[in-house]
Amino acid sequence: ELHKARKAKSPVLRALFVIFGIVSFGLGVLGIFLPLLPTTPFMLLSAFLFIRSSGRLYRWLINHRLFGKYIHDYIERRSIPRRVKWYTLGLLWASILTSVATLDVGNVIRLILLLIAVGVTAHVVKLRNS
Prior knowledge:
Blueprint: H1 11-33, H2 40-51, H3 55-62, H4 68-77, E1 79-80, H5 82-102, H6 107-126, E2 128-129
Parallel strand pairs: 1-2
């Protein structure tokens, strides 16, 4: 489980994890206001990076009044609220289908995007409702 992860041994690596965790958190906050930027994956990435670098930052994130419960439930119980689940899937498919339809990329890239969306959808659907 994530909360039992060990900290990185290298102080340089721990510092990089803290920096990337803070950047990831910032991107997650921006995702609240920018519909195509996902909040949840960035918050989970921040938790992943903080648990390996700073117990203080990890505890702060897990106890955050806005994000803490969602992150904790995902990590500990593999669950998310039903409305978050469907909102996430709606945004995922809207952004993927828009990208596939409008980007000037080859069919291989379009297929990869669709396969990623199918994989993420399968993962999200399997999560319990909290």
